[in-house]
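Hey, I'm writing a tutorial for new members on how sequence and structure tokens pair up, and I'd like a real worked example in the thread rather than a made-up one. If someone can provide the structure for the chain below, I'll link this post from the tutorial.
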Amino acid sequence: MSTYPTRKSADNAAIKIIEKELAACVNIIKIDESVYRWKGKIERHPEYQLLIKTRKKAYLQLEAFIKQTHPHEVPEIIYIEIKGGSKDYLSWMDSTVLPRPLRVPLDLRALKRASDPSKELKSARNPSTLSL
């Protein structure tokens, strides 16, 4: 969940979240007034609550997106873990939230050392093979 100060900012965020496949659905709920303390002062403002329906696999990217694009200095970002639900609905969510694997550049240098761990294990068991 996250709140936005204007309908326009809430609409823009909801559309981008769906375009980026970070959620299956985003509900925009008008809140007549929120009352909170900010920097020592009591504030009262209307807000728009985004109820963002996503899966765990997209949460970190969704959080980063909200932090990068939100108009507030400290945006509300809260998640509620799904403990159950309609299998059909949860399956639909899985098929729409980051349905394709992420493409991450592969750093082949990381594979160099891990190419044959069995050699390291053999030499550790047989100290006479170690050279100083």
